[in-house]
Amino acid sequence: MNNDIERVLYSREDIHQVAQKLGKELTTAYAGKNPLIICVLKGAVLFTTDIIREMDIYADLDFINLSSYGNETISSGEVQLTKDLDADVTGRDVLVIEDIIDTGRTLKFLIDLLKRRDVNSVKVCTLLDKPAGRLVDIKADYIGFEVPNEFVVGYGLDYAERYRNLPYVGILKPAIYEHK
């Protein structure tokens, strides 16, 4: 797998440091609130576990799965809800944890869904932000790293369900996905 990576953007240690920093910020922001933390599957699961271990508060955890990529490197533009939440979000302070915000369509879909379900508040924490890919006006409240407009994998992010288990975030060599 490592041979498929053009270059490493953020090491395991870089990610650990940002998780600690964000965990402290979120502990302060959600002190006394018992938020519902929503992990966006599958990509954000590693980051979510790292973040919540750094948070010294009571919180509930739930999972949602949204898809707009399938096995492609470019978003289809159509967001699909493939696994809904188990928890009732009505009146809750919600913290969404994402792996990456690229076009912003998936996140906008999720935030609109949560607002229709009458959350008290919704904030977003993302490991990676790719503003150059943005097609809708949406921003995260807490950002780990900004990434260039390249196809990144590792640490939960995938291409065709591969590379999620890399301990770092790297740029996938175009030759891997351009053969299609």
TrEMBL record:
Coiled coil: none annotated. SUPFAM superfamilies: PRTase-like. Residues 15-159 form the Phosphoribosyltransferase domain. GO terms for cellular component: cytosol. GO terms for molecular function: guanine phosphoribosyltransferase activity; hypoxanthine phosphoribosyltransferase activity; magnesium ion binding; nucleotide binding. NCBIfam families: HGPRTase (TIGR01203). Belongs to the purine/pyrimidine phosphoribosyltransferase family. Purine salvage pathway enzyme that catalyzes the transfer of the ribosyl-5-phosphate group from 5-phospho-alpha-D-ribose 1-diphosphate (PRPP) to the N9 position of the 6-oxopurines hypoxanthine and guanine to form the corresponding ribonucleotides IMP (inosine 5'-monophosphate) and GMP (guanosine 5'-monophosphate), with the release of PPi. This is Hypoxanthine phosphoribosyltransferase. It comes from Lactiplantibacillus plantarum WJL.
